Amino acid sequence: MGNKVIFMQPEKFYHVFNRACGFEKLFLSDSNFRFFLDKFDEILNGYVSLYAYCLMPNHFHFLIKTLNLEKFNNPISIYSRKFSSFFNSYAKSFNKFNDRKGSLFSQNFKRKEIDNLEYLRSVIVYIHQNPLKHGYVEKIGEWKYSSYKEIINGEFNYCHGGHEVIEFFGNKDILKFCHKITVNIDLD
Predict the structure, then answer these.
(1) Residues 16 and 89: beta-carbon distance below 8 Å
(2) What is the pLDDT of residue 137?
(3) Which residue intervals of 1-107 are DSSP H helices?
(4) Does 24 reside within a domain?
(5) Listed residue (149, 141, 164) closest to 13, CA to CA
(6) Residue 183 lies in a domain
(7) CB of 66 within 8 A of CB of 50?
(8) Which residues contact 122 (CB under 8 A, 6 or more apart)?
(9) What CATH number is given to the structural domain containing 132?
């Protein structure tokens, strides 16, 4: 049985993730990581709010909340079109800059609806723990392509929902404590 595509609904939280095709990398330099986040902000701002993220060399994770798009006739299709536009735009730029051809991302990006606060907290911690899980850092705050430090330091460059992330945990101390507990979630 194939994966069932979930159509995003307005005013819902989603864990959005994808990876590079095969053994490719999505990011080869610091500028790639920043460009990816800048492209996300440029294309998806006004359609979704970013609450947490982690960019790894060959994959990424976002926690987003879809915004209410009552002004559009069919907002459900707009979210997917915007994400498609974002991925295509990044891939075209990446391919051109790296003299590369072909698909960069796996065929369909994954998204899982988050329907309760406990799962929401788990997804946030899971996203931020990715660099630890994959052995890139020894401490969670060392990875610079994650929203963890952005949220802890209160410098919300990309995470427009960063203040709310702290509120989901109660305060920064509880948020930090929860990030010390290993979290595994089902991505299927």
Answers:
(1) no
(2) 95
(3) 30-44, 75-97
(4) yes
(5) 164
(6) no
(7) no
(8) 183, 185
(9) 3.30.70.1290
Following CA atoms 136, 147, 128, 61 in sequence, which dihedral angle do they give, to the nearest 10 degrees?
-90
Are 80 and 110 a contacting pair, CB within 8 Å?
Answer: no
**SS3 category, 158:** coil
For 109-165, the pLDDT digits (tens) are 999 999 999 999 999 999 999 999 999 999 999 999 999 999 999 988 899 888 999
Residue type, 37: L
Q: Alpha carbon of 173 to those of 91, 96, 111, 155: distances in Å? A: 38, 44, 29, 17
Q: What pLDDT does 182 receive?
A: 87
Q: Which residue has the tokens 């994954």?
A: 110
- What is the span of the domain harbouring residue 117? 13-178
Residue 157 tokens, joined: 């460059």
Structure tokens, 45: 């701002």
CB-based contact 43:89 (threshold 8 Å): yes
Total domains in the chain come to 1
Would you state the structure tokens that stand for residue 152, as one six-digit string?
Answer: 């802890």
Give the closest residue to 63 by CA, choosing from 144, 161, 145: 161
List C-alpha distances in Å: 143 to 99, 140, 146: 28, 6, 6
* Tokens representing residue 62 in the block: 């976002």
